[in-house]
Give the backbone structure.
Amino acid sequence: MKSGFRKTCVAMFALVLALSISQAVSAQEHVQSAHHGFHNVEHWARAFESPARTKWQKPGEVVRALNLRPGQTVADIGAGTGYFTRRFASAVAPSGEAIGLDVEPAMVAYMKTDAKRLGAKDYQARLVKADDPGLAPRSVDAVFFCDTLHHLEHRVAYFRRLAPGLRPGGRVVVVDFKKKTLPVGPPPADKISREEMIGEFRAAGYRLVREHHFLPYQYFLEFEPEPRAQLSK
Ligand SMILES: C[S@@+](CC[C@H](N)C(=O)[O-])C[C@H]1O[C@@H](n2cnc3c(N)ncnc32)[C@H](O)[C@@H]1O
């Protein structure tokens, strides 16, 4: 009996240790991603493009929910491997454009190769500065961020910089992880809650115009600049 109890304790201790190590590795990986960029594109492509992600990320449903029309232009900021950019390109074809913007040159190179492989002329990729995506005035119908905003500093100033780049009726769309422990994504401390995100957009002169609730791990928000912010363009 005693030996059985000891075996159970040892097994439980081993399980707790294994879970702690795996959480520490995952947190460390995230810390590395947050502070050291995404230059190891092969590693990140395995995560971003994995079929397991498709199950909870529901990219087809996300694109459908945005109701994009042929001829529109979408800027996917922090596009990574172009997971969403290539899907936006199909949604706005034949005369539209999806632009994958990223601070990481290796990601931009990956997207350019991806666009070439797909023969998609309406799928572009561009390197951007961390504090400014450099959108030309009134050039895009939608700006899209997925799991990127916690990497940005001074977000309110950044959001203000986006508004002049939007065409009339243009929106800024955010898909990001709910601030709680989840089986995927960064640890809660690194995430921005839905309420905080809405507050930051309000502070930057936007209002929440739509919200979608079908993603299990992420909130999905659509913002438009307040008329005042539009007038000051
Ligand atoms: C977690 S990945 C998300 C990739 C993609 N949005 C997706 O859903 O698969 C975050 C991406 O944001 C990029 N990034 C980080 N800070 C950025 C910034 N200030 N401007 C543009 N891209 C940024 C990173 O290089 C990385 O490719």
About this structure: The chain has two domains: 1-36, 39-231. Residues 39-231 form a domain with the Rossmann fold fold (CATH 3.40.50.150). The pocket of S-adenosylmethionine is lined by residues 37-38, 48, 77-80, 83-84, 101-104, 107, 128, 130, 146-148, 151-152 (CB under 6 Å). The radius of gyration is 20 Å.
